[in-house]
Amino acid sequence: MPTIFSHAIFASAIGGAFRAGHSQRLPARFWILTALCAILPDFDVIGFAFRVEYGSILGHRGISHSILFSLLTGAVVSLIFFSGFQIPKWKMGLYFAAITFTHPLLDMFTDGGLGVALLAPFSSERFFFPWRPVEVSPIGAGFFSERGLTVIASEALWIILPSILIVIASSLFRRISLRDSR
């Protein structure tokens, strides 16, 4: 898995692109929930403490990494945190579903683990992309090692750099849109 930091950075870049399409300023809760939804699927590592098998549907990269989980998360976040918000609830729901779904998609680019249960609970099959350039991050204290530095370098190239490019592109889009609307 990429680190939770990279998941949050990538999601925030997508949030910047989402913001570029809207005229109003987005509140702090939007940005906090963007980062939280991006890392939420990895809360499944708690299962290790309860001896949940990695390959189980409740294990790491199981149901919490599924399309269904992302859709439900988007709906719940939209209903609870964005009632009466200027942007329609359905749009916020789709945004937060997409942000949550960036997590399993990024995990599918990693070079380790068992894959991602995108179709859970309907299928226990695990998926990876054919091209997997991102070094898988060690879980726990193993992150603070030479291996952790290799992961950070890999994420800088394959996740952070594209995130920066998304931010630049969305900023340019927003500036052009604002200039053309005057």
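The record above closes out task 2.4. Task 2.5 opens with a second protein, given below.
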Amino acid sequence: MEKVKKVLITGATGFIGRQVAQRLAPRKLDLTGIVRPETSRKRLEPLEGFMTLAKIDLSDIPALKKFLAENEFDAILHIGAIRGGRRFPKKKYYAANVLATEQLMLAAYRTKARFVFCSSVGVFGAIPNELPANDLTERQRDGYYHETKIEAEAIVQKMVLEGLDGYIIRPSITYGPGDYGFPYTLTKLVDKRMLFLPNRTVRIHLTDVNILADVFAKTLEAQLTPGSAYIVADRQPVSLLELADEIHEKLHGKPYPRNRIVSGMWFRLGERIAKWMKSDLWLARFRLISRSWFYDVENTYEEFNIRHQRTLVGFKSVLDFYRKK
């Protein structure tokens, strides 16, 4: 492909988008970031020195179409989305996660730009039906966020058949400084000894945000097969108990208390209650700490030649961030 000069990044102030933007900054590219109009000044400041910011809500399709009609890019890294668990109407989820993807993809197709879509391993469900999950694993619409990602992926693949230079990146749950999601919450629960674990081995598969940023950066220059999808996560899954021990050792100097290991029946009960309450968020929370979820990342490491990362080593960045907060 021709050398990329102008790059559009959606979700530039989000946890992943910010890391990708900062990774690309030294390349002296012409970077533009799409950010929400209501984004605070504090979140915008780290990006203002090296990229142009366009204040557009991804769910505002007319505004997005107007912007794309007036601007052209060599590559579009579509990372922005309304994430799962947030309290928005389904209409807003659909507009931001599906319709916006369609508009960005059509703009890339029209201008022959490379289009890289940040999806999620959630397309396989919170807990995949097979382990390790891979590109052929059955999709599960077990939450509206996952459903929007499945639909957006289908749109991308359809346009690839029409000639779109398009690719899909599926990160697992990502960790690193600056994020308050699952890894930070896990650390807090372990610190307060409020995390209960099932009395069986649970293996989970997290993603160091630096590895994910590397993959996105390399998509701008790598020779790839259009339509390819890549699962991004650390090289190997980790035992949840081992991770809890590591966190507790670093914070308190001893392994996590074994009296916090309980029968799996309590987690099954929690799932039933969450289903009765129709809470996708709480259902996912119970499942993420009581069932295994890991993925086949072999082709990602081969294709992008990224460094291997052990979660127990990389997780130090979360602990350092947690201590500061």
